[in-house]
Amino acid sequence: MSVQPVFEARHLSRSFAVGGGPAERLTAKLRRRELPEVRAVSDVSLTVAPGETLGIVGESGCGKSTLARMIAGILPASAGSCAFHGQDYEAFLADRRQALKVQMVFQDPLSSLNPRMRVAEIVGEAAVVHGLVPRAERDTYVAGILGQVGLGPEALGRYPHQFSGGQRQRIGIARALAVNPELLICDEAVAALDVSVQAQIVNLLMDIRAASRLSMIFISHDLGVIRHLCDRVAVMYLGRVVELADTARLFAEPAHPYTRMLLEGMPRISLTRRGFQPIRGEIPSPLAPPPGCHFHPRCPMATDRCKTERPELRAVAGRLASCHHI
Ligand SMILES: Nc1ncnc2c1ncn2[C@@H]1O[C@H](COP(=O)(O)OP(=O)(O)OP(=O)(O)O)[C@@H](O)[C@H]1O
Predict the structure, then answer these.
(1) Where are the alpha helices (DSSP H) in the chain?
(2) 56 in ligand 1 pocket by Cβ < 6 Å?
(3) Ligand 1 lined by 75 (C-beta under 6 Å)
């Protein structure tokens, strides 16, 4: 019997109108013309099991953050749906206390922490407001959470600007943990930090995961971190998942030419020795994605079929992948 996922996304898509200032929107409306749209996320389906960490990788602009914000419930989807433990997501998010079960840790801890609030309030207020902790016990509760993320109780009365980048990210993680989440979404949570601090934060997340059944979605363009932390990995290209596999399998035997290209760019891994010569090139504009397989203009394996027929994401070679040549 398969375990029910904590979270499930079904066919999620999100488009944005571009070039649309108020005047342009009005003109377009009067002329009954549609503004051009960028398809940031297209038809993405995925699940996260209890205790599982799902990685999402891809080059800049492939839709990782848009997907993260839809999963966190802070950006509505244009199409598709989500479920939390099988429950409809709209109903789940409408219950503010329940919605706390999904938390997000952002890339830039300084801009995501209120500069006018002390750490005790930043970390503990949501737990108090939603009745998880009595107000009188807030600081003791927060001190305990700060201990879990490696900060001492002296942090309670300080403001975000009094901490280093790594400490601020610990505060961001503490704020998320304080409301007992079941799903933590980390969107480039270590990208802004020095390499040694990145390692500390990644290890902290691994410790937290080991101590609880916390599920995570970990978004990063850093394949080294993804490999270290994640159980499964979804590779995105131009808004679509092109490969989804167990981490060990993905790194040992990448199936999609785009995954191979990404891995080829990793230090110490050379797939070119196996005869794969990726064409690096630029990512095409998401405003006008290439027909057929979106990756075909950069793919050394592309044939005429790839130029016209979009490959479906299908179960192949022990994973999901969308390529006519696997
Ligand atoms: N609010 C918006 N309005 C218009 N276009 C947007 C908006 N948000 C994202 N996009 C576009 O959607 C696409 C996906 O962006 P997104 O930020 O999700 O990608 P990403 O993979 O997270 O990139 P990065 O790694 O650089 O953060 C991009 O083409 C981006 O320009």
Answers:
(1) 22-30, 64-71, 89-94, 96-99, 109-112, 119-129, 138-148, 165-177, 195-211, 223-229, 247-252, 257-264, 304-308
(2) no
(3) no
Q: How far is the CA of 189 from the centre of ligand 1 (A)?
A: 17
pTM of the model: 0.90
Per-residue pLDDT tens, the chain, 326 aa: give them: 577 999 999 999 999 988 666 676 677 667 767 767 899 999 999 999 999 999 999 988 899 999 999 999 999 999 999 999 999 999 999 999 999 999 999 988 778 899 999 999 999 999 999 999 999 999 999 999 999 999 999 999 999 999 999 999 999 999 999 999 999 999 999 888 888 899 999 999 999 998 888 999 999 988 999 999 999 999 999 999 999 999 999 999 999 999 999 998 765 444 444 444 544 677 888 888 899 999 999 999 999 999 999 999 999 989 999 999 98
Q: Whose CA is nearest to atom 14 of ligand 1?
A: 63
* ipTM score for this prediction: 0.96
The ranges assigned to domains in the chain are 231-325
- Cα 24 from chain centroid? 32
Centre of ligand 1 from the C-alpha of residue 283, in Å: 13
289 lines ligand 1 (CB under 6 A): no
